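We emphasize that the prediction below concerns an isolated chain of 384 residues; any contacts that depend on oligomerization or on bound cofactors are therefore not represented. The input was used exactly as deposited, without trimming of termini.
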Amino acid sequence: MERLRIYLKGDPVIWLVVALLSLFGILAVYSSTGTLGYVKQSGNTEFYVIRHITILVVSLVIMWLVHLIDFRFYSRPAQLLVYPAMLLLAYTLVFGANINAASRWVYVPGTSLSFQPSDLAKVAILLYIARFLSKQQEKIRSFRKSFLPVLLHIVAVCGLIAPADLSTASVLFATCLLVLFIGRIPVRYLLALSGAGVLGLTLMIVIILNLNVQGRVGTWKERIEDYIEFAQGKSTEESYQNQQAKIAIAKGGLLGVGPGKSTQRNFLPSPYADFIFAIIIEEYGMIGAVVLISVYLLLLWRTVQIVIRTPKAFGAFLAIGLSFSLVIQAFINMGVAVHLFPVTGLPMPLVSMGGTSLLFTSIALGIILSVSREKNEYETNEEA
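Result of the prediction step, given as a token string:
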């Protein structure tokens, strides 16, 4: 245990959260990709879980390296990183690769590797907001100096993400509002930002519809209309995805059918990503669901404790923003599986099978751990 503490700095509870979520992910991905491997990899049912573990190991190494760096180092790059992220988002809108009926990906030149610039943009904008708030606390009530620059950056980033990935843009927008609220930005300014976001989204949809180039707008419209009609009782028909997810949840019951014994993985679209929570409930029951929910809540609670004790404003805003983004995304993924929300396409952080999602989730957790290192050192110095 002492040797682990030498190499794993930062909050031990967050390291425990990382270990538990990684274990959940490996088990769930292995179970949910068996059919996919059989069909697409000539019967190799271990192909996707091996790939997932490989990416996970690389991601955890990156997390470890990131957590060793003093979080204050990220303050200067925070001013600049948001701009290349915007350029990549703009490039994706025009030249993005279409995967799973959405143009969210770009390929790394000269390789077959692809990534989602929105994952980079999420970290970049939260870094920018954390730095800006920490530097502008004395002018926090000035619209022109403390709020207008942040407003423009948030609207630009979320506006560039929205055409290809409305759900990610919405979650990021809500996370930014929460961080700004915690950063003491006046509520009237936040209401103005919310109005600007709604207006911008409305204008974008109207323009796209008038140009008759609906793309993802048609998918949003169909999913939201189906969800609203079902919620209001005007329709008894659910989407095929929601039907199969509810069957999985019903089969799971209290204790689940057991690891690897899911049958709904053969019927659910994306059981290893969007609907992985339904597979977890089917195999591990409501007890497994409660444990997974508790792990994410533990991450949020522990981050709040770190923020309370962190002497640096930049670290506090950064840790709480990154934590909010991960936990909100996790709960929306769960909400989709139980039909509390329309289908969004958001993966469950560190659990769903993925590439760039795992990498940038690990970077976010590494930064949170770096902030917790500062907190631990501060408390040690005080005791001395």
